Amino acid sequence: MFEELDTLFKSPTIKPSFEKVHVILALFIFEENKDGIGRYRLQNELLIGSGTARSLIKKLNKDINFIIVLTNENKRKGHILTKEGMTFLKKIKVKIPLIEAGNPIELKEIVIRPDGNYPYFCLVKKAADKISNGIEQRDAAIKIGGEGATCLIYNGENLIFPQTSLSEKGKEPMKVEDTTFNYIDTLFTKNNIQLEENDVVIIGLGENAEKARLAALNAALTIV
Predict the structure, then answer these.
(1) In this predicted model, what pLDDT tens digit does every residue of 38-92 receive, in sequence order?
(2) Which stretches of the chain drop beneath a pLDDT of 70?
(3) How many Cβ atoms are within 10 Å of 129's Cβ, its own excluded?
(4) Of 18, 116, 175, 220, which one is least surrounded by beta carbons within 10 A?
């Protein structure tokens, strides 16, 4: 699905220090900032260094023409998505239509150690068959600097937890409480998104919002 990004990671000398999750999140951020966003803001949003941000922007601009510099009266206002960048992001959003901050108070039932952690949601469409026990997604969240991730599957009626062991196979799956489900469903509805059977909801955790967002998206990318 991400073949267009392969060029960004090809180098005859040094491999780029950014990862696929940084590239894809950058595209979401560029879309949210239609008036342009600069390098310093981007590096803070992605939690990467100045040199890495410079390299990422240069490659997105020069190598695959996904962003351009927006100017106004000969003054630079920042970078915005090109038509090619918007087309690629649209393709991603078919599978991941939402990356949204959550309220830890509303998620105490299902999130381990909610105090001191920020939750972020990713919705992955029609990906339940790619989830086993959620361990791979948790590890992906931790790898990018998050505290972990919780996966939930929508079965058409309820949000349920993946079965985590062979002994659980065939048993009635554990579902989230109605109050938590209603909170998540309302959050998605406010974003004009409806849960469908076999959708996967991933809740990434981090010590700040930026780490939580990266954690959620990196976990989501394991099943896209």
Answers:
(1) 999 999 999 999 999 999 999 999 999 999 998 776 566 789 999 999 999 999 9
(2) 73-76, 112-116, 164-170
(3) 10
(4) 116
Q: What's the pTM value of the predicted model, to 2 decimals?
A: 0.92
Predicted local distance difference test score (pLDDT) of residue 170: 62
Residue 30 phi, psi (nearest 5):
-60, -40
pLDDT at 13: 75
* CATH code for the domain defined by 3-92: 1.10.10.10
The domain spans of the chain are 3-92, 96-221
In terms of CATH architecture, what is 96-221? 2-Layer Sandwich (3.30)
**Which residue type sits at 63?**
D
